[in-house]
Design brief:
Number of strands: 14
Largest sheet: 8 strands, parallel
Helix content: 40-55%
Strand content: 15-25%
Length: 373
């Protein structure tokens, strides 16, 4: 028997985090019994959103008590010849705050203990960078005890190799396997959803904001011409802290176009009703881009392609450059090409999805069905 201990600590007010966690959990159930960290500081709404059942919950008071429960399970499993895994890592690792470095250092102390008890440690589904030298050192140290280390784009892979994590490999973003095998078709109407954040890594840059809104206006002008001046726009957000800027973007365009600001954060349950209405989804949030298309909204990634590595590198790695519109560089002809060829580009995106799903499942099969495990 296989037990898969799952770390659910993340940004609970981020639908993108819910997306990638739910996508992975839904597949992991095929490999073993899930045991999720449901400590008191994990959002109950998030637990429900991920579909975690009562039998899958590890109810504990803190992170330390979750560690203790894993060790107890591993101790029993070793006697019964069962295998225990620990899965974590989804999301984006960046910066180098003292808190992040300390957390890495503590993990570096706990992971050897896991290894003594025969626990397989899996870090999967993340992008990394930019990070400080100190965080790089602590990450390299704890990686020594990680059995499977997977990042989701080539720039993250290069960074890992450069800081000495040679075992790092590529595994596609978990969102590709959300709604696996569901038929998908591009919508055909005059509706656009816009989901924008004001920064790349929480920095303040007024020039970036001005450039982004200006380029967004250019995109909307092209789309509006294609639908004979009858465009309808919904301003939405998937991350709670984006609400203020979402409203600011709405205020910027509401006197020009028929616009509506959706007051509440879009959850996984809401996604079909929102994105299912739209033909285009303009966003600089990775998992708005990689969720909206599943309901028929062609993503338009409005980003600084040089600095917004998480998004740009994911699309470049998958030969989906057409979906990228740079806030500083791209001219109207790039936008017009994307709009005029939307059906072809959408079909290409769905083919990429199928390939990524196969790659991802091969990775998971290698981890959990490996005869050496």
């Amino acid at each position: 028997m296989k037990y898969i201990c799952y770390q659910t600590k993340t940004d609970f007010k981020n639908t993108g985090d819910a997306l990638i966690n739910k996508a992975l959990l839904d597949v992991l159930r095929n490999y073993g019994n899930i045991k999720c960290n449901c400590s008191s500081d994990v959002s109950t709404f998030f637990i429900r959103e991920l579909g975690i059942t009562d039998s899958e919950k590890v109810k504990c008071k803190s992170e330390i008590s979750f560690v203790t429960s894993i060790l107890k399970l591993a101790f029993k499993s070793k006697k019964n010849k069962n295998q225990v895994y620990l899965v974590s890592g989804l999301g984006h690792q960046w910066g180098g705050s003292l808190k992040k470095c300390i957390r890495n250092f503590i993990a570096g102390l706990i992971f050897p203990l896991y290894k003594i008890f025969g626990i397989k440690i899996i870090k999967i589904g993340m992008s990394i960078g930019p990070i400080s030298n100190t965080l790089a050192i602590t990450e390299k140290i704890r990686s020594i005890f990680i059995d499977y280390y997977y990042v989701r784009d080539t720039k993250s892979l290069t960074l890992c190799h450069n800081i000495g994590i040679k075992k790092a490999k590529i595994c596609p973003d978990m969102s590709w396997i959300y709604l696996i095998d569901k038929p998908k078709k591009l919508n055909n109407n005059n509706i656009v959803t816009i989901s924008l954040r004001e920064s790349i890594l929480d920095e303040k840059n007024n020039y970036y904001i001005e450039s982004m809104l200006k380029k967004c206006s250019e995109i909307l002008e092209v789309i509006n011409k294609k639908v004979d001046g009858n465009i309808k726009i919904y301003f939405i957000y998937q991350v709670e802290k984006d609400k203020f800027f979402c409203d600011k973007a709405y205020q910027n365009f509401k006197d020009v176009y028929d616009c509506e600001f959706i007051e509440n954060r879009i959850t996984l349950d809401d996604a079909k009703n929102i994105y299912g209405k739209a033909t285009y989804n303009i966003s600089n949030r990775m998992h708005s881009i990689l969720l909206g298309y599943k309901y028929g909204a062609l993503p338009i990634a409005l980003v600084d392609t040089e600095k917004h590595i998480k998004i740009s590198q994911t699309l470049i790695d998958n030969n989906l450059n057409e979906l990228l519109i740079d806030v500083y560089k791209d001219k109207n002809n790039n936008i017009e090409f994307l709009i005029e060829n939307k059906e072809v580009i959408y079909d290409k995106l769905i083919k990429v999805e199928k390939n990524k799903q196969e790659e991802l499942m091969n990775v998971l099969d290698n981890i959990f069905n490996n005869v050496n495990n």
